[in-house]
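Input (Starch-binding associating with outer membrane):
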Amino acid sequence: MKTLYKYICLASLLLVGNSCKKYLDVVPPDVGTLDYAFRNRNEAENYLFACYNAIQNLNDLNRSPGFTMSSELVFPLNLPSNPINVTGFTLITGTQNAGNPGLDYWDGSGNGIAMYQAIRKCNTMLENINKPTDLSAADKTRWIAETKFLKAYYHYYLFRLYGPIPIVDQNLPVEASPDQVRVKRQSVDEVVNYIVGLLDQAIPDLPASIQNPAKELGRVTRPAAMAIKAEVLMTAASPLFNGNPDYAGFKDKSGTLLFSAYDATKWQKAATACKEAITQCESVGLKLNNTFIPAPNVTNLTSQLTQELVFQTSLTQRWDINSELIWALDAIWHGQEYCIPRMTQLANQNDNDNPAYYAVPISTTELFYSNNGVPIEEDKNFDYTNRNQLQVGDAANSSYIEPGYTTIKAHFNRESRFYASIGFDGGAWFGNGILDGSHMHYVEARGQASLAGPKTLQKTNITGYWPKKIANYLTTFDNGFSWTDFSMPVMRMSGLYLLYAEALNEVNGPTAEAFSYIDRVRARAGLSGVQNSWSQYSKNPSKPNTKDGLREIIHQERRIELCFEGQSGWDLRRWKEMQSVLSAPLKGWSIYEDQAINYYRAKNVEIPVFATRDYLWPISTNSLVVNSNLVQNPAW
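Output:
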């Protein structure tokens, strides 16, 4: 895959004269340029890599609604100057508009990516793949399959945002008539069937695994394509797109309905696709990462720390040795400096390089279970009412909390994924240069005099919580950064298992098979199975026994397991739960207070604004003017 990046810029230059910003792209008149681009195998491969370009750019999670609008994180929006494009983070405050949409993936503005332009490249690849005379039949077959997958994925990304979209199966010629150019949006069912059809064409001709990771890691495989197919069908079966009453009368200008009535069989199709993907993945050795492979200098790990690192490295471990990673974006994810609190004096002196901006609201921290494996508000042994009262760290909890440090009850007796995912005041932090489990860093976050506390406006975590999970434990910040990079997953085995459990529950309600796949994921976190945990510890012990109850459990399980991975925002949309999640202010601690009694007083850090219309993106007003056949999404 490293070779891919080497050629992307060159291939992109070949396309400059052929690009079009709008939803419709036409075949350019400079055919000679295309002939050059496909004159031999090497040049054609460069063009294939250019088709991957848009998908690699998705590795910037700040461009992903699944990340920025998930409510898992907040970013300070009042900085004099921002180190990143914060458009995605501002959308949660109600700034989205049709005049100049944020994260506009239709036209490629507002920090979005021009997906129709990416689709056009794929069509051009398919139209010209026969030109290189030195291209082997095997390579040709694989490249066609890869291109069809990418074309399907780009349509899928648009579908998740806009719902009914125009399908661009072929590039229109320059002599296309005005009527041909003014394409229409096609119904949800037509779009999904088209995407799934392309994936079905691609899957048989994709490799089962990558044989040369040094050159090809990141290129799509058969297990990855099957997992994405499962996710597409899960999205289509979910409440946002399956019989959504909010869109019951949504039609195009000819009167054609763009959303259909509820169809229960869509869940069965999704369940079948999930099981087929699981079978394919497991056949090539993919499985949950249940072991921690320590760096050479790691010492004195307790069983609690090992459990924590098993989970954390299922995300941050090098892809070529990560048994759980079905598919990731091979481009390096950049953002660890926003996740790691300052924990040394040198880090404090060099805080420009370590602003630690990504702030986790209190509501996200409360998603994670107690150590009994049930929600903290349901656990009859967890003092939920007094969870924000002070408590001092002790030897029994030294793997998680600094002994002698005053923090709060909510930070004690939590599941291992809480400690692997969240950095908090008084919390132990394994790594960042200290690999001795008996002598770890810990976070001091109270007041401006503390190492991790607020400094200037530009160097402040506004809630007092950090997304520890998306910082590699080997990355060090002291007198500058020493990076250990990783790629952000698109799909892990745990996510696929939970998709299957969700589909099974929607088809048949609670079944032994559904519980078995949830329990695999929980076991890796050191938790008992769902039925056992709820029967022993929950105030609502019968909850897993109904479809509605198990649905709620599975949804929370996905939000915990995939937290900060750019997944929850998409899930909350397809479930139609985003509006309820964003119905209350997002809160953090009183970070400027240096005394614990004052610090642990919750205050509002952001007021979300989310209406029913926000489930689908607006098409820009300009695009509607250019193409009179397009209709706007409801309420925009």
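The chain has 25 helices and twelve strands.
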